[in-house]
Design goal:
about 180 residues, mainly beta, Lipocalin, eight-stranded antiparallel beta barrel, about 5% helix, Lipid/polyisoprenoid-bd_YceI
Length: about 180
């Protein structure tokens, strides 16, 4: 069987995250500039290989001051570490549409293995005859595992920024 390559459709994809602020509300954000690809054996995704990169400077939480702080040395240090990458190590089918995606996430100069729950949307033809696939991925990471340690104590106890980062990723790919 031949290898099939899939390219990201960035207009229909989103790399999102949420972090607790002041222990009780979530701040959401995303990366606006990213690239991703998948390699499969034909249309079979059970052995799919995922490759992703995102530009740290493209982080957007809807607040310019916060985004600049996130790009600074307190957090991502976009100048020294301009890119985050993910390379899959396995993509295991758990049911008809549910998969576990495991891979190496490199962020802030640190590489660690992460597991994501993926809902596979199947294959469909768009109105222009392109074969597309959609995937929704969710997971959690602890930002301190990648050396993103900045925080500020609150007078009432607790901290300003949560350690757990919830990932919410929507991906649409076009068969090449």
């Amino acid at each position: 069987m031949s290898t099939t390559k899939w390219s990201i459709d960035t207009a229909h994809s989103e790399i999102g995250f949420k972090v607790k602020h002041m222990m009780f509300t979530n701040v959401s954000g995303n990366f606006e500039k990213f690239d991703a690809s998948i390699e499969t054996e034909g249309d079979d995704f059970t052995s799919a290989k995922f490759d992703f990169s995102g530009e740290i400077a493209s982080i957007n939480t809807g607040n310019a001051d916060r985004d600049n702080h996130l790009r600074s040395g307190d957090f991502f240090d976009a100048e020294q570490f301009p890119t985050l990458t993910f390379k899959s190590t396995s993509f295991e089918k758990e049911s008809e549409s549910d998969y576990k995606l495991t891979g190496d996430l490199t962020l802030h100069g640190v590489t660690k293995s992460v597991k994501l729950d993926v809902e596979f949307g199947g294959l469909a033809k768009d109105p222009w005859g392109n074969t597309k696939t959609g995937l929704s991925a969710t997971g959690k990471i602890n930002r301190k595992d990648w050396g993103l340690n900045w925080n500020s104590a609150l007078e009432t106890g607790g901290v300003l920024v949560g350690e757990e980062v919830k990932l919410n990723i929507e991906l649409q790919f076009i068969q090449q």
